[in-house]
Every structure is written in C-alpha cells, then in structure tokens.
Amino acid sequence: MKQKDSEIKALVKEKYGQIANQSRDQNLSSCCGAASSCGNDAYVIMADDYSTLEGYNSDADLGLGCGLPTEFAKIREGDTVIDLGSGAGNDCFVARKFVGANGKVIGIDFTDAMISKARQHAEKVGFNNVEFRQGDIEEIPATANTADVVISNCVLNLVPDKAKVFSEIFRVLKQKKHFSISDIVLEGELPDNLKEVAELYAGCISGAIQREEYLSIIKQTGFTNIDIQKEKKISIPDDILIQYISQDEIEQWRSSGVGIYSITVYAEKPCCEPGSGCC
To answer: Which among 47, 64, 170, 228 has the fewest CB atoms less than 10 Å away?
Structure first.
C-alpha cells in the first residue's frame, strides 16, 4: 500500500534525526545513512569525495550525498546560494568558499537535529554569511527571486511531491539564474520488495523516480537549458540486497537492465515567467 505523503515525511524526519547523530563512517557503511548497518564492509554506495574541494569541512560531511553539485554549480563571488536539504552543512561550507565574504549561503533542512548540527559547525568556523533555516522544501522558507544558485545533494528523491519542489525552486531563483542538483533516478522498475522497505526509502533508493519523468518535471516547470552535468550508475553489493530480496530476485534484477543512477542536473530559470512573452 502506498504511503501517504505525511507518513513518508514523518519517516524521513525520524530517520535523518537519527542519522544526524551518526558518524560519517557509520553512514558510509549503511544503506545511504540508514540507521542500521547494511554490510560488514564500508561500502561507499552513494557518496562522492569532497575532500579535495576548497571550503570542505570534514566535521560537516556525513557522507549522505550522491554527487558534487557545488563542483558544477557555476557559483560566483557575491552570489546568494540556497542549499535544499543542507544536512550538517557540508555543501553550504563548500559553496561559501565560492561566494566569498560578500555572498550568502542559506541551508534549508527538514530535520531539527541537522539544523542544530549545521549551526554548531557554522559558529565553530565563524561564518556570519552562512544561515540555516528549518523548513519543508515543498514550501521553501525564502522569498521569491532570492537566489542566484540553488543546489541540492541527494534530497529531492526523498520528497513526495517533486513537482512542488521544482516549482518552489523556480519561485526562489532570480530570472536568468540556475540550479545544479544531484539526485537518484531509475531506469526501469525496482522490485516491489525494495520499494516497500522503509529503511531504504529513507536511504534514497526507493523514493527515486524514472529519469524521464524527473527531467520532464523540470521542463514542465518552465526551466530551460537543461543539462545532465554528470551521471554514474549505482551498484548495491549483494550482501546488502540479500537482506531485502532473495538470491533469485537479485539475479533477476541484475539481468533485467534496471538501473539506479546518480545524476547531476543543471537548468536555468528564463528571463521571464513562461507564457508572458517578454523574452
């Protein structure tokens, strides 16, 4: 039975409240940060390596991402950047290096524990232009035409109404500005057993939608110059899958052509509202 949106949100809030208090090593050795371990070895299933990026703060890196959106986001000095699902602040601190002292970075997160942790990190490093706000990214707590760049790292897949999120991104972006978002998408249908596992849902796989649908939502929202900046196929080790599906089902899935991908998508808000004729 399909979960109600409110139930999914409550589950995500609960799980990521637990994850906020786990170490990066714990998160890397689990199903995308799920509270219980998924294997005996430390498989880096989703996360990319941030350690070479300027501004990287290891204390704020919980290993929950599936890409490096800040690497591709074309952030400039003086920009205002909004990070959706900012977690402990990792992408915000990297973005702050790009915007400099005259720019601003706003992190938005659903989970009180994550906001608290991110604010502690910001205070520790003395950044006065990095701000963290608690809120639902289906209703971004920011005024219209605020941001030069919106970034997000492996978060939108957790949100029930993805069209609403992209509509909100469109609203908060200034005209002719853009987003760069890393997320999980599918090609083909996941087995029902995987979809129904709540822990995996909170761990970013079962909440993903088809690539074609994902890109279609972006286009229908009104964004232009849509580009996939990076993609990688996600391989989940058998010793993780066997906890949820049988060996026969694993083999069937492996041979089915179904794929789980991390993609980083760039798109721009046009110079006027769609249909107004001012461009």
So the answer is: 228
